[in-house]
Design brief:
The complex is a heterodimer of chains A (266) and B (285).
Chain A lengths: L1 H24 L1 H6 L3 E2 L3 E2 L2 H32 L2 H16 L2 H20 L7 H25 L3 H9 L4 H12 L1 H17 L2 H6 L17 H8 L5 H31 L3
Antiparallel strand pairs in A: 1-2
Helix pairs in contact in A: 1-12, 3-6, 3-9, 4-6, 5-6, 6-9, 7-8, 9-12, 11-12
Chain B lengths: L1 H42 L5 H5 L12 H32 L5 H15 L2 H15 L6 H25 L3 H9 L4 H30 L2 H6 L17 H9 L5 H34 L1
Helix pairs in contact in B: 1-11, 3-6, 3-8, 4-6, 5-6, 6-8, 7-8, 8-11, 10-11
The chains are: A mainly alpha (266), B mainly alpha (285).
């Protein structure tokens, strides 16, 4: 009733407010432009690349750890241990992102400085590590739920055929739960793409094309958060376009998830 | 011979994977312990009564966070006051009134799912243009709360819906059999038995409001005064921690940042414990 209208208008407004800005700035110049020098040049290509690299890095590090932890919770852990680990994972999910950013700033950034002997540790690598920690709880919780939702006959069947416990986990249970695991990974990716404050705090925020993961960079979200409060006119339009590109990423992510789950469901 | 070798390999493979699973779980836990321990061990000593209830000045030694706590409480209260009635009523409509699978239900589902997927900074962008500028509310607790209300709406709708669906059909049938109207049955029978689930959704949203920072500083600003009305700007705890980390020069500033982070972690711990208590309470009945 009240909700119908409000939810619909909210969804409508976000897109309505964003689209004109996108047209105003010129799609190609904006998306593929390599220089961000307001108020002259508004190219967000370096930000797109930085977002993709930091997200991909976080997935490469975080997802295997998360899926294995989910397997641990669903299959291997004795009940008492799972009852300790599970609330711990929930706590990990509840910690505000600025606290992760602060932790990254005081622990990970200096560690990178000493490890690689570079003057400033505010790099993509620092962002990757912080994001990897932040996506753990999302992926763990959803993967564990989908592993537990499997009918017990799957495991019983595999064990009856003489497969070892571990073998049946990786050859039968994990493949059977993959649509749930994919969903978890997709939500993890969405969290990594959307994360803002922790990234601003550890990644150095230089709006230039990064040459390696040991250089500072600025993501799409950081670009919006850092400049929105003082931007006007075409500058603020460009920030809106940054937001639209961000939304396009999320839509693509959801679409590919739908596609994956559809093609694999039979 | 060949057979033996394969079995041997498989055993080794099993052991390796077994070790991988255990170490992954250990890494997860160690990270958590490391983050929490590092913050608490450096921060707890600096959390004092004066720190919590004191005023804050940027220059000088006054470093209290009372204004930030008040702003955070305002923000939580107001966002919930806006989002909870709308969210709960939407959930009631979806489970009790709407025909399952109808166009309206599908539209609302689609909207809430899209809302849940949008990065929070985009909410900030929208809130800043719409509430702050277009509606002329300025950087204020009200603008921030309206923005965050939109952000937590999907959480409230989803969790409440699940709580309502978990109420057995026989409750509804019993209500009607006794001749009560639909509204009366919902109000007197269904809502009370779904209450723990609804409270859980409120606590989850409280956690979200406390934890958000990017959309907050874009809509509520970061003034360190105690807000006198909802139209004043205010700085929440997370935004405060963010601002502190941008000027970590003296030991005093480090201590403040650690102490603020500690307060935030303790808040999250308390919220998690409350949810746990409600869950065990629910299982008992």
């Amino acid at each position: 009733m009240v909700g119908v209208i409000s939810v619909a208008t909210i969804g409508w407004f976000v897109f309505q407010e964003g689209l004109p800005a996108f047209k105003e700035a010129g799609i190609v110049n904006l998306v593929l432009g390599r220089e961000w020098l307001p108020p002259a040049l508004y190219g967000i290509f370096p930000m797109i690349v930085s977002t993709l690299i930091s997200t991909a890095g976080a997935v490469v590090i975080g997802v295997p750890i998360a899926i294995l932890t989910a397997v641990f919770l669903a299959e291997l852990a004795p009940k008492w241990l799972a009852d300790i680990v599970r609330p711990a994972v929930e706590l990990l999910a509840g910690i505000p992102s600025v606290v992760y950013g602060f932790f990254g700033l005081v622990i990970i950034v200096p560690a990178i400085e000493t490890l690689f002997n570079i003057p400033a540790g505010n790099t993509i690598l620092a962002g990757i590590i912080v994001l990897a920690i932040m996506i753990l709880p999302t992926v763990i919780t959803i993967s564990e739920t989908s592993l537990r939702a499997l009918p017990p006959v799957y495991k019983e069947g595999a064990l009856a055929l003489g497969a070892s416990h571990i073998y049946s986990i990786f050859k039968v249970l994990v493949p059977a739960a993959r649509s749930g695991i994919f969903t978890g990974v997709a939500l993890g990716i969405a969290r990594a793409i959307g994360e803002t404050m922790a990234i601003i705090m550890v990644m150095g925020n230089a709006p230039a094309m990064p040459g390696s993961i040991l250089e500072p960079a600025r993501t799409l979200t950081a670009n919006i958060a850092m400049e929105m409060s003082y931007a006007t006119g075409i500058h603020s339009s460009a920030l809106y376009s940054t937001g639209i590109v961000l939304l396009v990423f999320i839509v693509l992510l959801n679409a590919s998830l739908l596609y994956l789950n559809r093609t694999r469901s039979y | 011979m060949l057979q033996d070798k394969r079995i041997f390999n498989r055993e080794r493979q099993d052991k390796l994977l077994f070790a991988a699973i255990w170490s992954a779980a250990a890494i997860t836990i160690l990270f958590l312990l490391w983050v929490v321990w590092h913050i608490l061990s450096n921060g707890l000593a600096h959390v004092s009564w004066e720190f919590i209830t004191g005023a804050y000045t940027r220059i000088g030694e006054a470093s209290g966070i009372w204004a930030m706590i008040v702003s955070t409480v305002y923000m939580v209260g107001l966002s919930l006051a806006i989002a909870a009635p709308i969210g709960i009523m939407t959930a009631i409509y979806l489970t009790e009134y709407a025909a399952p699978g109808s166009k309206v239900v599908k539209t609302i589902r689609f909207c809430t799912e899209s809302l849940a997927g949008i990065p929070s900074i985009v909410y900030g962008l929208f809130g800043m243009t719409f509430f702050v500028t277009t509606l002329g509310l300025g950087f204020s607790i009200l603008s921030g709360s309206l923005t965050l209300a939109m952000l937590i709406l999907p959480v409230i709708i989803r969790t409440t819906e699940e709580a309502l669906l978990a109420v057995p059909m026989s409750y509804r049938e019993g209500g009607y059999a006794l001749g009560s109207s639909k509204i009366y049955t919902i109000y007197r029978l269904i809502l009370p038995s779904a209450l723990p689930g609804i409270v859980t959704s409120i606590i989850l949203s409280t956690g979200r409001v406390i934890g958000e920072s990017a959309p907050v500083f874009l809509t509520a600003g970061m003034v360190t005064q105690i807000p006198e009305s909802v139209l004043d700007s205010g700085r929440t705890l997370t935004v405060h921690l963010y601002k502190l980390t941008q000027e970590l020069f003296t030991q005093h500033e480090w201590d403040q940042a650690y102490a603020t982070a500690t307060v935030l972690i303790v808040l999250v711990l308390l919220l998690n414990m409350t949810t746990k208590l409600i869950a065990t309470h629910m299982n008992k009945h």
